[in-house]
Amino acid sequence: MMEAADPSVADMSVSRETFAALQKLEHLVRRWTEAVSLVSKASLSDLWARHIVDSAQLFTFCPQEARRWLDIGSGGGFPGIVVAVLAREKLPGLRVTLVESDLRKATFLRQAAQALGLDVAVRSSRIESLAPETADVVSARALAALPELLGYAQRHLKESGVALFPKGARFAEELAEARKSWTFDVDIQPSLSEPEAAILVIRKIHRAKQD
After folding, report:
1. Is residue 53 within 8 Å of residue 10, measured between CB atoms?
2. What distance in Å separates the CA atoms of residue 211 and residue 204, rounded to the nearest whole number?
3. Which residues pair with 185 in a beta bridge?
4. I want to staple 148 with a disulfide (CB 3.0 to 4.6 A). Which of 22, 68, 118, 144 is the partner?
5. Cα dist from 37 to 26, 34, 42, 139, whole Å
6. For residue 63, what is the domain's CATH number?
7. Could you give the number of structural domains in the chain?
8. 3 in a structural domain
9. Which residue range(s) make up the domain with 170?
10. pLDDT string in tens for the chain (211-residue length)
């Protein structure tokens, strides 16, 4: 009798333990959203694709040598908790820090991390108040417009680091607006969860010289 193949998420093969942890996170988010608005109620019916898969795909762009991942505006754990679950199996040397200024959401993040047995740091403060993190990766999902995100990334990334920002169908407009005040290298990757969306993989972020 043949053994069943390992499950996968975001086109990435994962262990049954990792898959089960992501399912547990999905359950936790559904339960907590009744009291705390972790995700929109409209997206609850498709939470796995809209949030779990959408977050997991970011992990595929993480450099293998990365040791520090900073997720800002972590909310319901997307993508930070998902990244931490995947890293436990795929990149155990990666340390994930979650930044969430909403105290109720920060409480959820801490309890979710405990329930899933994850070693993550949760900072319940505004990103503007944090000292530079010198992270290898900075991520943010549905937090702010790209020009603002680039400011956070420049402050908290090491020089060789990468910023991972999923954006919707209007990502080209955001890129054009961002280039008015920033210079950067960007690799535009298709999103697995939304056909018209993209993952912006951004490096070498600098303030643009003003005329």
Report:
1. yes
2. 21
3. 203
4. 144
5. 14, 7, 11, 21
6. 3.40.50.150
7. 1
8. no
9. 11-207
10. 345 567 999 999 999 999 999 999 999 999 988 888 888 777 777 899 889 999 999 999 999 999 999 999 999 999 999 999 999 999 999 999 999 999 999 999 999 999 999 999 999 988 988 999 999 999 999 888 999 999 999 999 999 999 999 999 999 999 999 999 999 999 999 999 888 999 999 999 999 886 5
CA distances from 198 to 37, 61, 170, 180, 186 (A): 25, 13, 9, 20, 11
How are beta strands 198-207 and 182-190 bridged, if at all? antiparallel
Task: Yes or no: say if 109 and 43 are a contact pair by the CB < 8 Å rule.
Answer: no
- Whole-number Å distance between alpha carbons of 87 and 82: 9
The DSSP-derived string for 4-45 is: PPPPEETTEE--HHHHHHHHHHHHHHHHHHTTS-SS-GGGGG
CB atoms closer than 10 angstroms to residue 121 = 13
CA distance 87 to 118: 10
Q: What is the CA radius of gyration of the chain?
A: 17
Q: Does residue 52 lie within any of the structural domains?
A: yes
pTM: 0.93
Interatomic CA distance for residues 164 and 200, integer angstroms: 6
Residue 6 in any domain: the answer is: no
